[in-house]
Design the sequence.
């Protein structure tokens, strides 16, 4: 069923990408609209707990920066790799690979190693921020023992999201932005749940 849907959407990639982008934004809004009342309700979370939750979400957004823009470069490289009639120049910024799916195989192997390294860097950042940076401020003064567990669980979900950017970049590079937006929207719904 998904394969036939994908084949039917191929001629309408731009429109499908736009609609999938709207779907992703709607998923994000829905998750925020449903979860924020629970987070801000003092009967469910104390003001300290809700403040920690919101601070953790803001701080963990910086973990995504450990991508260093590599996923965008990888998407460009994938698009270049899939180009059959590319012109090779000496000053090209692209890595020369085979064209088509053979080149995508080598790009996949290279990207897999790179994103393992980025995952390790992101996990180290999680530990450094919680163990060394957050105790310097007053953010953890009124925290409970579960705070550490919450930080690392939220952090690992962030690292997992960072790791998925590798696959999203490969899909973007093959011109299937509509799939990445749809998957990202479903991921937001799952994470919000």
Sequence:
């Amino acid at each position: 069923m998904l394969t036939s849907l994908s084949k039917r959407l191929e001629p309408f990639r731009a429109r499908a990408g736009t609609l999938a982008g709207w779907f992703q934004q709607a998923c994000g809004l829905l998750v925020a609209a449903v979860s924020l009342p629970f987070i801000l309700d003092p009967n469910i979370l104390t003001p300290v707990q809700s403040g920690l939750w919101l601070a953790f979400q803001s701080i963990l957004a910086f973990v995504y920066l450990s991508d260093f823009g590599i996923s965008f470069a990888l998407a460009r490289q994938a698009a270049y790799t899939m180009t059959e009639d590319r012109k090779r120049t000496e000053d090209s910024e692209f890595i020369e690979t085979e064209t088509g799916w053979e080149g995508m195989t080598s790009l996949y192997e290279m990207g897999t190693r790179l994103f393992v390294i980025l995952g390790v860097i992101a996990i180290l950042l999680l530990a450094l921020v919680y163990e060394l940076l957050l105790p310097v401020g007053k953010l953890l003064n009124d925290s409970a023992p579960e705070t550490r567990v919450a930080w690392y669980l939220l952090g690992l979900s962030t690292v997992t999201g960072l790791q998925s950017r590798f696959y999203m970049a490969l899909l973007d590079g093959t011109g299937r932005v509509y799939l990445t937006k749809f998957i990202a929207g479903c991921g937001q719904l799952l994470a919000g749940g």
Notes: The mean pLDDT is 82.
